[in-house]
Specification:
It catalyses: (2S)-2-acetolactate + H(+) = (R)-acetoin + CO2. The protein has six helices and 15 strands. By secondary structure, it is an alpha+beta fold. The protein has one domain: Hypothetical protein, similar to alpha- acetolactate decarboxylase, domain 2 (60s Ribosomal Protein L30, Chain: A).
């Protein structure tokens, strides 16, 4: 049964910090928990965005690929889309948009998702180059990222909002990925100047946290000396 009130999360952002980058969930398994989502591949292999059940990967060369069921991920979110209308916006700046979404959502201590479809100006995204074992830390691996920019592009922003109290398991605030309508540009959003388009909203009453208990590296790692929050905020900002 498809439950649109549940946000499914495999892994945590914290496990990426020391370089626990093994793919521990297949795309087939992830899609059993949602038709919409974001994530990254084994070794931080690009940026994933799932729209209407189709898993797109933006790799470090800027290519947009549709990945198969066997593609593996160390971290991902997914859910079944059941969005409600929030608002239309016209040439609104990113900071102003986030403040407006915060106000209208009135859900600072719950998980929710926002989708924005429209025209984005001066958008900047990134994708990380896939690394191999032995993996470096998140901070080191994230240095090998490619930056992509477009002056104007039509597309879809998919964002998950996580409450401050869950910072570390996820990144507190908004975590956003993008895919152009032409399927030729996307990635993890670093910034955009403004957007004109439609905003929809979906709130979750449950977080289903799935951990990679069959992965020895995860089971036996001592996180006590890792700068979890500092590394996450630097890499995901």
């Amino acid at each position: 049964m498809k439950n649109s009130n549940v946000l499914y999360q495999h892994g945590t952002l914290a496990l990426l910090v020391p370089g626990l980058l093994d793919g521990t969930l297949t795309m087939k398994e992830l899609l059993e928990h949602g038709d919409t989502g974001i994530g990254t591949g084994e070794g931080l292999d690009g940026e994933l965005i799932i729209l209407d059940g189709v898993p797109y990967q933006v790799d470090s060369a800027g290519n947009v690929n549709i990945v198969d069921d066997s593609f593996t991920l160390p971290f991902a979110n997914s859910h079944f889309a059941a969005y409600n209308e929030m608002m239309d916006v016209e040439d609104i700046k990113r900071d102003e948009l986030q403040e407006l979404i915060d106000k209208k959502a009135a859900s600072a201590n719950t998980f929710y998702s926002v989708v924005i479809k429209g025209t984005f100006k001066n958008i900047k995204t990134r994708a990380v180059k896939k690394s191999s074992k032995p993996y470096d830390t998140l901070a080191k691996t994230a240095e090998a990222q490619s930056i992509f920019e477009r002056d104007t592009v039509e597309g879809t922003l998919l964002s998950y909002y996580s409450p401050q109290v869950f910072d570390g398991a996820a990144v507190a605030g908004f975590h956003s990925h993008f895919m152009s309508d032409a399927h030729d540009f996307g990635g993890h959003i670093l910034d955009f100047e403004s957007v004109s388009g439609n905003v929809v909203f979906q709130c979750f009453d449950s977080l289903l946290q799935h951990l990679p208990i069959d992965n020895p590296a995860y089971k036996h790692h001592d996180f006590s000396s890792d700068d979890i929050l500092g590394s996450i905020h630097k890499a995901e900002g």
